[in-house]
TrEMBL record, chain A:
Subcellular location: Cytoplasm; Nucleus
PANTHER family: EXOSOME COMPLEX COMPONENT RRP45, EXOSOME COMPLEX EXONUCLEASE RIBOSOMAL RNA PROCESSING PROTEIN
Matches recorded under InterPro entries: ExoRNase_PH_dom1 (IPR001247), ExoRNase_PH_dom2 (IPR015847), ExoRNase_PH_dom2_sf (IPR036345), Exosome_comp_Rrp42_subfam (IPR050590), PNPase/RNase_PH_dom_sf (IPR027408), Ribosomal_Su5_D2-typ_SF (IPR020568), Rrp45 (IPR033100)
Similarity remark: Belongs to the RNase PH family.
GO cellular component, one term: nuclear exosome (RNase complex)
Annotated spans, Disordered: 338-358, 388-452
Keywords: Cytoplasm, Nucleus, RNA-binding, Transferase
Organism annotation: Lupinus albus
Sequence ranges of Basic and acidic residues compositional bias: 399-417
UniProt GO BP: exonucleolytic trimming to generate mature 3'-end of 5.8S rRNA from tricistronic rRNA transcript (SSU-rRNA, 5.8S rRNA, LSU-rRNA); nuclear mRNA surveillance; nuclear polyadenylation-dependent rRNA catabolic process; rRNA catabolic process; TRAMP-dependent tRNA surveillance pathway; U1 snRNA 3'-end processing; U4 snRNA 3'-end processing; U5 snRNA 3'-end processing
GO molecular function: mRNA 3'-UTR AU-rich region binding; transferase activity
Protein name per its UniProtKB record: Protein ECERIFERUM 7
Automatic annotation (TrEMBL), chain B:
The keyword RNA-binding is annotated on this UniProt entry: yes
Protein name per UniProt: Ribosomal RNA-processing protein 40
Organism from which the protein derives: Lupinus albus (White lupine)
InterPro entries referenced in this protein's UniProt entry, alphabetically: Exosome_RNA_bind1/RRP40/RRP4, KH_dom_type_1, KH_dom_type_1_sf, NA-bd_OB-fold, RRP40_KH-I, Rrp40_N_euk, Rrp40_S1
GO terms for biological process, alphabetical: CUT catabolic process; exonucleolytic trimming to generate mature 3'-end of 5.8S rRNA from tricistronic rRNA transcript (SSU-rRNA, 5.8S rRNA, LSU-rRNA); nuclear polyadenylation-dependent rRNA catabolic process; poly(A)-dependent snoRNA 3'-end processing; TRAMP-dependent tRNA surveillance pathway; U4 snRNA 3'-end processing
Recorded GO MF terms: RNA binding
Annotated ranges, domain K Homology: 156-204
Highest taxon above the source species: Eukaryota
Major site of localization recorded for this protein: cytoplasm
Keyword presence, S-adenosyl-L-methionine: no
Length: 452, 237
């Protein structure tokens, strides 16, 4: 037992400690990076909604997001809750003990939690179903599979990626008193994504006993050598959401300001990366959906519109072909660059009113066309911020666009101008202020609703 | 004594449960079994995944690449000193248990001159005994009692790799990646069979290049290793 404890203490040798520091003096790191280079970040998604795998160098973290209907906290009757759970497998690092959450596991969970919560990145009020009675409780599980250093950043990205792809089932209120909650299965109504205002990205810096040495994204070996660590959580606009400073090494103000500047740049890069991969994933997801619901089996949807149209020509009935041709024509006219025709675009052109019954299958594709309940209205309002006034004018279709394919918004905005003039504000334009603003407005709305 | 292997599984990938030798057809010969093989009545079956190896005249074993090390006698390994006791150093050699290095197991070691090793020193040692259910015993001398390069490794950088890679680095003829690097760069290297490699050179950049080249050659064939090393050397010149 005691031997095991000793074994865990040997994280690194004296040789390596000295070597890492001397190499850093000449701007070299043991994996060939320069001090301010980030490692390669890979994001993958699982088959289910709300699961992600993130690789940062050797570090490997997976994350799942789940939701549950629960009673809200008494002091916040109309806000959903958000909780982060971490699991450090002993396979990742021999120093992780099974069962008991170690100090670093707790710290990691807290940093991720704080970054999301304090900056109000997730709109928790849109998670309310019945005020004071039922809200969605979002749970983020983070599992560390391999520890190659800098778990915090990897876990944070994993959590964000999982949140972005998470879909909660839609629910509506029925019954005579309007208090009966019906949760619609995903086959019946399309599940809804969370409303995420901005992405707080954690960027970790390592400090060494020599004051001038600063590294970004420390590896496992560097972590055992460095004497101080700072995790800054920023979004792409440079708003600082939280800072966590650990380790004994004191850091001067000048260095911290420098670090924040660097972190801002990295946060922008990482945000773009996450958004890109999420968009690709959403496209794939939507394509999968088309496959699943379509009545004709032989539809192989892949690649460009032209090919898609061609293939469908062979297999699908006349009705669909007509629609597709229309769609194709429309696209050509619109001069949309459709190298890979995303279904987000498909959707958008659909909402233009070109082809309502484009998908041959059951009409579960568009949940809003059937009914709009007050909750989903509230939910989509919350994402809109300033455009609350116009929301009355906008049709349900444009709303769906708005929440579903976020990245494409700007393009679509021009097309669907006739429907709703002000929907197309991009996510990048939002700041922390925007995240806070709609809250007040919504409170007013909520109170008026209650009066009604 | 027959020197040809009596099975056609040699140098092929084998999985646990594979029957590689049938003893009933080879009654008049003796064979020696190494790791990863076991005898079930008249057959020899495999207990771990890897490549079946044969050495003349009659030795068979299964070779695999893994992150954990199982100590074997007469292996040269790199250990990290974890603690000092009155008559032993406790050394981590990536095995299931810590290994003992007797304080007298040095060239000319007496009670008077016990070497001083700080905790965290890396040392190049030889495994003397390795029995299951016992801590392995190490020595800083070769079989004849000479120091023979064993001892503390000063400076340099030590990294961990799989046991397969360290075996490849030690194989003869010299591993292509080392050969290619050695033509252009001068560096010192110590490879432990327990999957630890220590590299030292005059400048940190050389050490980093060598270390990364070796780590990258884990999954490469001989030719690929050579190409990779040549490209790397071109880049830095």
């Amino acid at each position: 037992m005691e031997y095991q404890r000793l074994q865990q203490l040997t994280k690194t040798t004296i040789n390596n400690n000295n070597f890492i520091q001397t190499a850093l003096l000449s701007d070299l790191r043991i994996d060939g990076r320069r001090p301010l280079d980030y490692r390669k970040l890979t994001i993958k998604f699982g088959r289910d909604d709300g699961s992600s795998e993130v690789k940062l160098g050797d570090t490997y973290v997976i994350s799942f997001v789940t939701a549950q209907l629960l009673q809200p906290y008494k002091d916040r009757p109309n806000e959903g809750s958000l909780s982060v759970f971490t699991e450090f497998s002993p396979m990742a690092d021999p120093s992780f003990e099974p069962g008991r959450a170690s100090e670093s596991a707790v710290e990691l969970g807290r940093i991720v939690d704080r970054g999301l919560r304090e900056s109000r990145a997730i709109d928790t009020e849109s998670l309310c179903v019945v005020s004071g009675k039922l809200v969605w409780a979002i749970r983020i599980d983070i599992h560390v599979i391999d520890n190659g250093g800098n778990l915090v950043d990897a876990a944070n990205v994993a959590a964000l990626a999982a949140l972005l792809t998470f879909r909660r089932p839609e629910c509506s209120l029925t019954g005579e008193d309007g208090q009966q909650v019906v949760v619609h299965p995903p086959e019946e109504r399309d599940p809804l994504p969370l409303i995420i205002h901005h992405l707080p990205i954690a960027v970790t810096f390592g400090f060494f006993s020599n004051e001038n040495l600063v590294v970004i994204d420390p590896t496992y070996h560097e972590e055992s050598v460095m004497t101080g660590r700072m995790t800054a959580t920023l979004n792409a606009n440079g708003d600082v959401c939280s800072i966590q400073k650990a380790g004994g090494e004191g850091v001067s103000q000048r260095v911290i300001m420098n670090c924040l500047k660097l972190a801002h740049v990295k946060a922008g890069d990482i945000t773009a990366k996450i958004r890109d991969t999420v968009e690709i994933h959403n496209t794939e997801r939507a394509l999968r959906k088309i496959k699943r619901h379509s009545s004709s089996v032989a539809v192989d949807v892949c690649g460009t519109t032209a090919r898609l149209g061609g293939k469908q020509n062979q297999s699908v009935g006349d009705n669909d072909v007509n629609h597709l041709d229309q769609l194709k024509l429309k696209d050509e006219v619109n001069d949309m660059e459709c190298e890979t025709m995303s279904s987000g675009q498909l959707q958008s052109s659909k909402s233009d009113g070109v082809s309502k019954n484009f998908i041959g299958g059951p009409s579960s594709w568009d949940p809003y066309s059937e009914c709009v309940d007050s909750d989903s209205l509230k939910a989509s309002l919350a994402s809109r911020g300033i455009a609350v006034k116009q929301s009355g004018l906008s049709t349900p279709h444009s709303k769906q666009n708005d929440s579903r394919s976020e990245i494409k918004r700007e393009e679509q905005a021009e097309e669907i101008k006739t429907n709703s003039p002000n929907v197309g504000q991009s996510n990048e334009g939002k700041t922390l202020k925007d995240a806070v603003k709609p809250k007040r407005k919504r409170k007013k709305r909520a109170s008026t609703n209650a009066r009604n | 004594m027959e020197t040809k292997p009596s099975t056609n599984f040699v140098d092929k990938l084998v999985c646990p449960g594979d029957v590689v030798l049938d003893l009933s057809t080879m009654t008049n010969q003796t064979i020696k079994l190494g790791g990863g093989l076991r005898q079930d009545c008249d057959t020899i079956s495999v207990t771990k995944a890897g490549r079946l190896r044969f050495s003349k005249p009659n030795k068979y074993w299964v070779e695999s690449s893994q992150k954990r090390y199982v100590p074997h006698a007469e292996d040269s390994v790199i250990g990290i000193v974890v603690d000092q006791r009155s008559d032993n150093f406790l050394v981590d050699i990536k095995g299931p248990t810590l290994a003992f290095l007797p304080v007298l197991a040095f060239e000319g070691g007496t009670r008077r001159n016990i070497p001083k090793f700080e905790v965290g020193t890396s040392i190049y040692v030889r495994v003397v005994t390795a029995n299951p259910e016992m801590n392995p015993e190490l020595s800083c001398t070769d079989a004849s009692g000479k120091a023979a390069e064993f001892g503390a490794l000063k400076e340099g950088y030590m990294f961990e790799c799989s046991t397969g890679l360290s075996r490849m680095l030690l194989s003869s003829p010299t591993c292509p990646v080392l050969e290619a690097l050695g033509k252009k760069l001068s560096f010192e290297i110590a490879v432990g069979l327990n999957g630890r490699v220590w590299v030292n050179s005059a400048s940190p950049s050389t050490t980093i290049i060598v270390a990364n080249a070796i780590m990258n050659s884990e999954a490469l064939s001989g030719v690929q290793q050579k190409i990779m090393a040549d490209k790397l050397l071109q880049k830095i010149q």
